[in-house]
Amino acid sequence: MPLNARIASLEERHAALERRILDEDSRPRPNDIELARLKREKLRLKEEMEKLRTPRMH
């Protein structure tokens, strides 16, 4: 998969996780365990995107 396509895919997943986090957080009794899991996954995706965007030094 080309780099730009990989980053775009990660961005889509990141946005979907953000929507799921907002949905869960807006519930009267949010599931804290699920929220934490979603936030960890969102952070993992963000870190992967940043890693792919950062030029590599040789």
TrEMBL record:
KW Coiled coil (keyword) present: yes
Q: Short name of one Pfam family for this protein?
A: DUF465
Tell me which UniProt keywords the record has, alphabetically.
Answer: Coiled coil
Instruction: Look up the coiled coil feature and give its residue ranges.
Output: 7-55
**Matches recorded under InterPro entries:** DUF465 (IPR007420), DUF465_sf (IPR038444)
- The protein depicted here goes by the name DUF465 domain-containing protein
